[in-house]
Amino acid sequence: MSESASDPVYGPQVKRPLRVRVLQYASLVLAVAGLILLYLYSVNRDIPVVRVADITPTMNFAYVRIVGEVTRDAYVFDSGGVVFNMKDESGEIAVMGGRAQADALEADGKLPCRGDQVDVAGSLSVSADQEVKLRMQSADQLILRRKRSAVFTPALTRISLVDIIPAQKGDSVSVVGTLKKISVPQPGSKAPYVLTLEENGTELGLIFWDEVFQGLEKKLPTLGKLISARGRVEVYKDTVQLKVLEAADLSEVSERATLGLSVERPVSRIADITAEQKGEVFTIAGTLGEPKSIPGGVIYPIADASGEMVVLFWDKQVSGEERDALECGVHLRVTAPLVVYKGTLELIPEDAGAFSVEAGR
After folding, report:
1. Is a pLDDT exceeding 50 seen at residue 44?
2. For residue 73, which of 146, 164, 163 has the smallest C-alpha distance?
3. How does pLDDT run across 288-314, given as a tens digit for each residue?
4. What confidence tens digit (pLDDT) does each residue in 81-135 have?
5. Measured CA angle at 287 (ends 282, 289), to 5 deg
6. Is the distance from CB of 313 to CB of 349 less than 8 angstroms?
């Protein structure tokens, strides 16, 4: 039987020349390399900077950069996400990010505050009613320059509360005062925490938001304690406030160690102290009466020319050795928060540094 043309041909396959195979592999390598280079170029190419006023509906979803000043502090939502406002020389825009961006900015201490300079990249969102937003895709594409030119240090000049005036808006200062009042915002509120300090009759509000509260491990300072704070002077509704930007800038200090500066608290007349002032810190000077032992401590009556009250020394706060100089007839100067127990006014020193025997009295 003769072999037809349509019958398959069996036998050894004809190999392609080596040069052809090399060219095929080389083409494949070049194609892959080209794709990689194209990707790297698209990722690393300069992202164009646009002016807020130049954004149009046709730029919806465009990936751009905006450079300007923060006009509203970053707010982190309980449900995740972050938003802040910024402006350039032409207009203002809201910048938003998701939970990942919010967590990254918070972890890196890069949540923008009013007055900071930012360079941020993201995708434009232009709604039907022309509302424009910028959506961050990565926290790494936000470059932040704080308004503060230097990091706070203990050497920062301390200023008395009475000397802080609206003209100092934007200045960074250090203050020391007694914590008189605490205001905590309602859940979901955008209001700040407010701590009211008092120094020689002058009060000042310290304000901060949840970022600082979290940095304080959700523990606010104790009423009646002496507080050291560093922050930026702000003015809200004609009222001067001090904005605390970091948890490290707020702390309790002892009466004798206020950033290396002495605090001379005025001496109060015992008769002028009332039960309504419970929790406030007072300094009194008077003569001790006969002591009375109680479980865990000792009580001394103390009297000045105007009246009498009680000083209570707990063993766990002031040891017996530290009380050796105390006896009936000794003139004592003591500074402590006011406690009202069963109608009796008491001062309870927190340690031996809170009282001293006045010689020659």
Report:
1. no
2. 146
3. 999 999 998 999 999 999 999 999 999
4. 888 999 999 999 999 999 899 888 877 778 888 888 999 999 999 887 778 999 9
5. 110
6. yes
CATH topology for 52-145 is: OB fold (Dihydrolipoamide Acetyltransferase, E2P) (2.40.50)
DSSP-based three-state secondary structure for 350: coil
User: In the predicted model, is pLDDT for residue 17 greater than 80?
Assistant: no
- Burial call 194-206: b when 16+ CB within 10 Å, e when fewer: ebbbbbeeeebbb
Task: Report, at the CATH architecture level, how domain 161-253 is classified.
Answer: Beta Barrel (2.40)
Rounded Cα distance, 295 and 282, in Å:
25
Contact 76, 209 (CB under 8 A): no
Place of tokens 């979803």: 61
The pLDDT of residue 263 is: 44
Q: What is the pLDDT of residue 267?
A: 84
Torsion of CA 204, 205, 206, 207, to 10 degrees: -160
| Strand 63-76 versus strand 172-183 pairing type | unpaired
Spatial separation of the C-alpha atoms in residues 316 and 323, rounded to whole Å:
12
Q: Hey, what are 201's tokens?
A: 């009759």
Q: How far apart are the first and last CA of the chain?
A: 141
3-state class (DSSP) for residue 255: coil
Token pair belonging to 227: 């507080």
Report the half-sphere exposure of 347 (CA within 13 A, side-chain side).
Answer: 28
CATH 2.40.50.140, applies to 270-357: yes
pTM: 0.36
